[in-house]
Amino acid sequence: MPATKTEQILDALKTRLETIPDATVERNSVVPEKISTGGLLILRDGTPGEPEQALGGFGGVYCRQEAEIDITIEDGDATSRDAAFDALLQMVGSILDADPTLGGLAFGMTYGRPEIDTEAVVGAPAIKAGTLIVAIEFEADTALG
């Protein structure tokens, strides 16, 4: 059975994120004990919006998926950590802006700045993390996406 449109979109988004050099990209995983020097991106399925059907029941179902991209950098030096986080965030933005339709799977996507948090870790470098919400609009054959 072919994957749902939602699954195709999330897979396409993960594939594009995997092109970021030195970053580890995972999907729906927990944060590991060690974060790679290039940073960690975890794509989470996020929240589906309420599907809307075209008037008269003709055509497909219009869907919205709010995927989440957790962006994490680990470094003990605040200046290096801030610079690395900003660089990784800009690379993610470039990936999203380069193909907002994900090869024609979606009508488009929007995103904003993530809420950012820095956490001290006992015996390890501090972690700077943020979650970027990416709203993806698309048409599917059924309300299941």
How would you characterize this protein structure?
The chain is of the alpha+beta class and 145 residues long. The protein has a single domain (5-140), classed as STM4215-like (2-Layer Sandwich), CATH 3.30.2000.10. 23% of the residues lie in helices and 39% in strands. Strands 1, 2, 3, 4, 5, 6 and 7 form a seven-stranded mixed beta sheet that branches. The longest helix has 21 residues, at 78-98. The model has no long low-confidence stretch (mean pLDDT 90).
Quick recap:
This protein has 145 residues and is α+β, with helices and mostly antiparallel strands. Helices cover 23% and strands 39% of the residues.
Distance, first to last CA: 14 Å
Q: Could you say what the CATH topology is called? A: STM4215-like
Main β-sheet: number of strands, strand sense, barrel status?
Answer: 7 strands, mixed
Structural class by SSE content: alpha+beta
If helices are DSSP runs of H or I spanning 4 or more residues, what is the number of helices? Answer: 2
Spell out the helices and strands N to C. HEEEEHEEE
What proportion of the residues is helical, as a percent range? 10-25%
Query: What is the architecture at the second tier of CATH?
Result: 2-Layer Sandwich
Descriptive labels:
145 residues; alpha+beta; STM4215-like; elongated
